[in-house]
Design goal:
The protein is mainly alpha-helical. It has two domains: about 30 residues; about 140 residues, no CATH class. The chain is about 70% helix and about 5% strand. The protein is built from six helices and two strands. It has a two-stranded antiparallel sheet with strand order 1-2. The termini are far apart.
Length: about 190
């Protein structure tokens, strides 16, 4: 019983430290990011990505693509949290106060690029497109966001991202090809 009380006290201390850090982060975000150039660029990237997808998606595959896109978002946010928590990277110019995710990437660029590539050249093998996607994202996308200062790598290398992006793409592509969906209403 005494151990539980001590454990709870340690946990409360950590929660209080986290809340204090988040309050400091909020002040910095409001003073230095919100409505500044980086914030506006993040907003344009976020909205523009979805507008692009809305007009260039394969309309009859919308729901299947969104299913894959939702999975891409989920796994991206989870992996982003893990990488940030481990101190492998962090983001600047954030659109929202969310920690650690960079909204334009995790919820816009990644899922939309996956969905767009799934529908492009559907006759090409999924693993080939996955490797292409992994290489393109790791060696073009990530360096671009490092160069612009939105993405700061503190313990990560581009090459580590290639298999992760490839697997995300391949799994999302696999999700769109499932015939096991059945109507809810009979």
């Amino acid at each position: 019983m005494v151990e539980k009380v001590e454990e709870r006290g340690k946990l409360e201390n950590l929660i209080n430290q986290f809340q204090h850090l988040h309050a400091e982060y909020t002040k910095i975000w409001l003073d230095d990011v919100f409505l500044h150039l980086d914030w506006w660029i993040s907003l344009i990237i976020s909205v523009g990505t979805w507008i692009f997808w809305f007009f260039y998606r394969k309309k009859e595959s919308t729901h299947r693509l969104l299913y894959a896109g939702a999975f891409a978002m989920l796994i991206s946010v989870i992996l982003c949290y893990i990488g940030s928590a481990l101190g492998l990277w962090y983001y600047t110019g954030k659109l929202t106060l969310s920690i650690p995710a960079w909204f334009p990437y995790n919820l816009c660029l990644l899922p939309v690029s996956v969905m767009f590539l799934i529908q492009a050249k559907p006759h090409i093998a999924s693993w080939k497109k996955g490797v292409f996607y992994g290489l393109l994202t790791a060696f073009v996308g990530e360096p671009f966001f490092v160069w612009t200062g939105y993405y700061v790598m503190t313990g990560w290398e581009y090459i580590y991202s290639v298999p992760i992006y490839a697997i995300i793409f391949i799994f999302c592509d696999w999700l769109t090809k499932r015939d096991s969906f059945e109507g809810v209403y009979k």
